[in-house]
Amino acid sequence: MRVLILAVGQHISDWAQDAVRGYLGRFPRSWRVELKEIRTEPRAGQTPARLMQLEGSRILEALEEDDYVVVLDEHGKDFTTTEFARSLNEWMSEASRVVFVIGGPDGLAPEVKEKARRLMRLSAMTMPHALARVFLAEQLYRVWSIGAGHPYHRA
Ligand SMILES: C[S@@+](CC[C@H](N)C(=O)[O-])C[C@H]1O[C@@H](n2cnc3c(N)ncnc32)[C@H](O)[C@@H]1O
């Protein structure tokens, strides 16, 4: 199983970095779950649209042709954890890699959203991008635990 979290921003707070590393470090070798950070520009003097365009082209460069791209977006579809587990298994069976894209402080460029096979919402509330990474990493670990029959997940 290959999963990539492609996240805008290279200087997130230590607590979030530690939490994401903690979850990613728990997966067995059969699940390769990685985080790749997309470099941001200094925000001073740039419009949000320009920043999203620059970040968007870096995101598109990091994608492979047959990736199954899921964009995290507060206007996307809601999933229960069980639905997410079922969907992730389907997506994994359709592509060699599932890529979750998390935007930066300004969100994501339309070109990136157009690449998405799914727009997924983690909550009806807007959250900071660092928290979205932690939330997603935990849910991926939970999905692994459901499939593995590991007691981490107790419904
Ligand atoms: C601070 S938010 C950007 C908010 C921005 N107004 C927008 O339109 O996307 C940064 C990123 O975190 C992710 N994010 C924030 N809240 C989310 C939510 N409730 N569900 C899914 N992803 C979320 C999205 O990938 C978003 O691009």
From TrEMBL:
InterPro entries in alphabetical order? Alpha/beta_knot_MTases, RlmH-like, tRNA_m1G_MTases_N
Cite a GO CC annotation.
cytoplasm
| Cell compartment(s), UniProt | Cytoplasm
Q: Name one GO molecular function term.
A: rRNA (pseudouridine-N3-)-methyltransferase activity
Q: Where does S-adenosyl-L-methionine bind?
A: L72, G103, L122, S123, A124, M125, T126, M127
Query: What protein family does this chain belong to?
Result: Belongs to the RNA methyltransferase RlmH family.
Oligomeric form and interacting partners = Homodimer.
Instruction: State what protein this is by name.
Output: Ribosomal RNA large subunit methyltransferase H
Native source organism of the sequence: Sutterella seckii
